[in-house]
Write a sequence for this structure.
């Protein structure tokens, strides 16, 4: 616990943060930090603070800012950087309550502000945001669409370093074309955002979306035509019956229940070097747990069984990918404020199959008394 000058700290907060701010970065001197940004609640439009520390995200009401900063300071994050305007940083040491105002060059300002500027914005991609229905013709984004706007930016931010690895990997041919698959694409938000981003890099690419619904595919084809995105293609089919094609990156956002498993299997069979998968509901395992479970105390109440099924399903998906040689990380790609389904399974091909992890997967399924759809991935991968 760090001793701070709380009253002096709060006076500095009122002085410099009474209005809006770009971001706040609180450091502890050991390389760890909290990044705080302003946002609005998607339902009430009330101002909120989104605080991120590693993969942890916490949302607080705006009026609690002083207490939040004081508490984090006492926890050791006493070195404050307040980014309050273009190029303006206020440095505050909560132990003494003293402030120092600095003017920074743009590069330095972006670095210390946490680099959280939206990648795709109305000023650089207005035509795309309008085409996919997130931005209105007058350039505004409604409260309803703001959640989707934040999701696609957060998804792209997490996706960018993975894409960079794929792009910079040595290839046998100089005429490299990056293949991206959006599986169970729905309205194809991710497909269009990735196509825009890869085009901005002037990189040869193809983006292919697959969904079983004719209406969403027709809409996506029309939108691609309006944008003259000839590098995009779409297919009406179930993931099981869709055309087999190679891909370097596979993405899927909120594929319902077993659609997520089919997306993962499709990507692995296609030889995907990386997968970015955001699951939705986990109803299949939820129903199986009702009939048989090694832990009946977790299944007696429906809400507990739902939470159990969610964690178990996604844990088995991650373990199956690890058994096939992928390096897997489960992370919160966006604040739960914007979607209740904010966890992402990020997998990058790192090595060959791991038989011991496959055995661990099988033993885990047997222990919990479930047969999840992701089990089919091993037979599918054997046929590749």
């Amino acid at each position: 616990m760090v001793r701070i000058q709380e009253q002096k700290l709060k006076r500095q907060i009122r002085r410099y943060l009474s209005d809006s701010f770009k971001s706040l970065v609180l450091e502890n001197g050991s390389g760890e930090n909290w990044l705080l940004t302003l946002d609005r609640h998607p339902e009430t439009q009330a101002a909120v603070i989104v605080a991120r520390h590693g993969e942890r995200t916490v949302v607080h009401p705006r009026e609690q800012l002083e207490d939040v900063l004081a508490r984090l300071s006492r926890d050791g994050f006493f070195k404050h950087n307040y980014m309050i305007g273009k190029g303006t940083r206020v440095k505050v040491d909560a132990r003494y309550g003293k402030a120092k105002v600095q003017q920074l060059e743009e590069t330095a300002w972006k670095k210390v502000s946490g680099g959280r500027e939206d990648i795709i914005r109305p000023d650089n991609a207005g035509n795309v945001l309008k085409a996919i229905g997130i931005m209105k013709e007058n350039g505004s984004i409604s409260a309803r669409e703001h959640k989707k706007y934040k999701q696609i930016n957060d998804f792209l931010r997490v996706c960018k370093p993975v894409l960079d690895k794929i792009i910079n990997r040595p290839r046998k041919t100089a005429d490299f074309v990056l293949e991206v698959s959006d599986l169970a694409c729905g309205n194809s938000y991710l497909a269009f955002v990735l196509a825009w981003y890869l085009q901005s890099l002037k990189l040869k690419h193809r983006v292919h979306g697959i969904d079983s619904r004719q209406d969403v595919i027709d809409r996506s084809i029309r939108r691609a035509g309006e944008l003259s995105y000839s590098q995009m293609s779409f297919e009406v089919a179930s993931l099981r019956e869709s055309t087999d094609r190679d891909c370097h990156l596979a993405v899927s956002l909120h594929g319902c229940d077993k659609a997520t498993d089919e997306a993962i299997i499709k990507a692995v069979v296609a030889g995907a070097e990386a997968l970015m998968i955001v699951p939705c509901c986990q109803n299949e395992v939820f129903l199986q747990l009702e009939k048989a479970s090694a832990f009946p105390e977790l299944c007696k109440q429906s809400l507990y069984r739902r939470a159990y099924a969610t964690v178990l399903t996604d844990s088995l998906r991650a373990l199956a990918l690890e058994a096939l040689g992928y390096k897997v990380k489960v992370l919160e790609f966006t604040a739960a404020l914007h979607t209740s389904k904010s966890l992402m399974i990020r997998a990058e091909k790192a090595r060959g199959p791991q038989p011991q992890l496959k055995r661990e997967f099988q033993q885990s399924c047997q222990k919990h008394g479930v047969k999840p759809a992701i089990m089919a991935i091993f037979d599918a991968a054997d046929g590749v």
